[in-house]
Amino acid sequence: MTKKRDLRIVFMGTPDFAVASLKALLDHNYNVVGVITAPDRKAGRGQKLRASAVKAFALEHQLHILQPKNLKAESFIAELKALNANLQIIVAFRMLPKVVWQMPAYGTFNLHASLLPQYRGAAPIHWAIINGETKTGVTTFFIDEKIDTGAIILSEDITIEDHTTVGELHDDLMHLGSDLVIKTAEAIKTDTISTTIQPQSTDLKTAYKLNRDNCKIDWTEDLDTIYNKIRGLNPFPTAWCYLDNGGEEQLSVKIYGIEKQIAAHKHSAGLIFTDKNSIKISCSGGYIKVNEIQLPGKRKLDIKSLLNGFEFKEGAKLL
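and the corresponding structure tokens:
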């Protein structure tokens, strides 16, 4: 019978996505000796300090918490060493210095929300949908000097449906990923781990960090490209564009729930067509039917509610 290793785990993560994996470790009775998460940040109108989702969960379960601003600081390194961990598990954290990821005897593994080597980077869930992928997944790998390039331990795939939003895929991958973290930890515990070096490929897609520029809708693009972009940014950080409603000022609007309508037409891109209960926007190959929208300074509304108090003028368009 294989002797099982006695694991002492340090977990590093910050957002909700990471909480599911930390919870799974506790549910499976793993010994989590420390939790590393981001410092509290000011948020909301009152700019009050707010703890990360991982910190809130760790406090509830009375786990030892560290919140370093500088991962290379001597004081943090000393505190981390004092935890005497032999395994570190990283889920949605930040890039680690070598002195940190090399520390534990059984290594440091990361959960990444893509099928590596595809979609290395900051926003793999978003870009898989934006690029129209029909499959993605989660991967665990041992960290090395570069970003998301280490030896693969395990991976599991999932289908992306044509209507799936990034919010829905995020939650599916969060749960799939927490299961994979447990499988990976179990393989390390039983010393049955095996790894695969990531294949070299020139056809790699990158999960670039999202910003205001790459979240803007270009209505001159084709129907599927626009449709994938909007659902790949719904509900966060949200696709946006300008509304020209015949006034001097163009309004910045956010687009959430949508449907696509394939149709041949000769309308210019971005024209808005309305009836009593709906609006649709012309683009190459058809129309985007908008079900949810947010005007500047307002809350998100379904289209029927919006049309009760807002009028789109003739010739109104999205830019």
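(Above: one complete record from the training split.) The domain at 9-189 is CATH 3.40.50.170 (Rossmann fold).
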